[in-house]
Every structure is written in structure tokens, then in C-alpha cells.
Amino acid sequence: MxxxxxxxxxxxxxxxxxxxxxxxxxxxxxxxxxxxxxxxxNGARTDLWVYNDIQQAMTEAKxxxxxxxxxxxxxxxxxxxxxxxxxxxGNDRVQALAKxxxxxxxxxxxxxxxxxxxxxxxxxxWAGMFINADGVVYARYGTQSAEGSDAYxxxxxxLNTMNRVLELHAAHPKNAAELKGKRGEPKPVSSALELxxxxxxxxxxxxxxxxxxxHCHNIHDAEHKHALDTGKFSIDMMYKFPLPDSLGLKIDxxxxxxxxxxxxxxxxxxxxxxxxxxxVRMNGQRITSIADMQWVLHNSPLGDAQVEIETSRSxxxxxxxxxxxxxxxxxxxxSMWNAPPRFQVxxxxxxxxxxxxxxxxxxxxxxxxRWINKQGKGGQQAFNDxxxxxxxxxxxxxxxxxxxTKEFNMHIKLNYKVGDQLPLTILRNGERQELKxxxxx
Length: 441
What we know:
single chain, alpha+beta, Glutaredoxin, Pdz3 Domain, 5-stranded antiparallel sheet, 14 helices, 20 strands
């Protein structure tokens, strides 16, 4: 039997694509099938990206003594699609650096990912991590906020981080002390399929398609559910990976480490931090990006805390933070929707034309009930309590509706708990009605 027939028999066909550096990267029929099932148009560069196989990349990196660049991408998500395309296929500078200096991986699902090694903000639609073959974490890249999915990400910023990673890799292991804290404490389980709060694990365990892919945010969803099931959930769990803005620092987004502005009277200002300096270390960890700063802050207490910051010119500063310093607008987070209370009603902002026809003030943002999820307890209860599709929510607890859809759902989670009633004023067929929606989940 020839090799081709044997490979067909066992269902595995390995193709070797050699790049200009003479390094062969393998891909398989299974990978091609995954690309097709996910409709991953940006995953075609098999000469550059190891596809969805971190272990293969670690093996190659060990042989080549190169750092590993892993991009995590939720393919079906629209947010960050343009940035993902630019990184994966478009930008020549990223491609040249990723191919020559790194072993680069495109990871499109979380099923087999080591959660203890790859700890990052799982609500991101695109994230990058840099490690070596021994599992030492060099850096994180990728930041998101209520400003939008791509407000912080840029090719220039990514390249700056990649070049800093190369410096760290060249200096390793002499710099091990300033990298130690970049790898988090081990997680209780090794993979997403083992998470105790993962809904419908049997479905996720099947062959990956767009309908059963474990998205990054599903990990936070599972963590929230497990916390609920064990009576440990708190809304404080939503304040993950705060920006350096929480300290009063505005960081240049392309540099990733340069202090652009220190806000007056902020904790950073009191500590003596100055604009036009670069942040070198935080709590002893070498900083390469804003995401690195967020990692340090994420692992700091929500209550009173201190953060040690070392800058390029003025040296070390101790930033003293008061309880509640982590709080910020988390309405952009995908995992917010599964945090309690779950309203389970889709309410986009009413169009300006429709608002004007109803003679509602221009300062208001009425919300139109487009869909009620009657398969969920929260949606079914809202329906039972009188809410109907096409209703217009004009006030919440007597106050005019002046929130967008995400802000409205965040408002519910911040101000109500399961068992409370949500007072809504609605317009139905031009008439106002008062409803009280019982929040049951």
C-alpha cells in the first residue's frame, strides 16, 4: 500500500509547506475541514500560521529556539474582524516578523487550550499571547473597552509589542524574575470542556462548527454560572482587566507603554508619575503593552491596593488605590449577558424617525422590544408580566430611558438582583402602560 492510500485509510493527510526560511509547517485535512466549517477566510495562510494547534507550534519553537505568537480569534464574531484580517493576511510588516522571528499560531477555538497557561481577557474578540516553548509568558496584546472593539488595537501597537517580545526572548532565562508573574496560578481544570459551569458540554464536545464553537467569552460565562451555582457570584466579577485609566493614566495606544497623560488629582498623579515617560515594570513584571498592564491590575485586589510602577526616567512609584478603583463601564463585555439578573429581552434603541413620530424628546433613547426569549426563564417571565414585542420602553423606574441596549442591561445588573422587580414604562399603540417585570434568573 502506498503512503497516500495509507493516509486516506487512517484519515490523516499531512502537507508540508516550506517558507522562504526553509522551515516546514504542517497542516492536515482535519484543519482544512475546521476552516471550512467555521468559514474562516482569514485562516488560509498555512505558510505563516500553524492552524489551531498550539502543541505543534511549541514543538517547532523548541527546535528553532523561537518565541511563539498565538492569536485567539472568534471567527463568527464581527467585532475585530478588520483587525484580524489585517494581522492574518493583510499587513506585510506583521507577516514578515511573524514568519521570520516567531512560530505563529492561529487558534480559533478554546476546546483544547490549556487554561492555566493561556490566561487572558476572554471577553476579547481578538487576543494575542506570546510565550516560549517551555510555557514562559512573555506578553499579552489586545485590549477592548466601551469605546469599541478596535479602539486600542493597531498594527503599530502590535509590532511594538512583538519587538519587545523578541528582546525578552533573547534575554531569557536571565530575565526570568521579571517574567514569573506573567503566568497565572494554575486553574482547577485544564480545558474549557472541563469547566463545571459550562452549559451543554456534550454539544461542545462534538466536532466543531460555527454553532458549537467554544468562544473565549464562554469561559467567563462558565465561571459566572459556577459562581452562581455555588453561591459565590458577585457583580464585582465583571470588573475584569481594568485599564490603566483606573489609576489615572492615559497610555499612548500605539506605543503601548508611553504615558500620554496623567489625570489631575488621580492616584497616579499623587504617586508622582509623569507624562512622556515609558512604563517599564508594574509589580516587578516587565511591561510590553497595555494588555500587560491590565494583567497586573486584574490580579490586584478590588479593595484598597498598591501598585508599584517603574518608569524609564523617574524610577519607581507606589500608586495607592482606594476600594472600588476597579469599577468601570463593562457594558461591552460578551459575558455580561449571562450574568444575573438575566432579562433575556432584546431592546435596540428606537430609530430617530420612529422617536420623532411618537413625539418623544430628542434627549431620550427609547428602547424597542424586538424579541423576547421565551425559551429562557427571564424572557418567559417578562412575557408573563405583560411585556410584548413592539413595546417601546420609555422609562425605567420612572426615569426617562437614556441608555443604549448594552447600557440598559448593565444598569439592570448593577441596580437589581434576582427576586427584584424591574419597573418599566412602555408605549403600546400610543398608550402608556406601567409594568413590573419580575427578575427570576
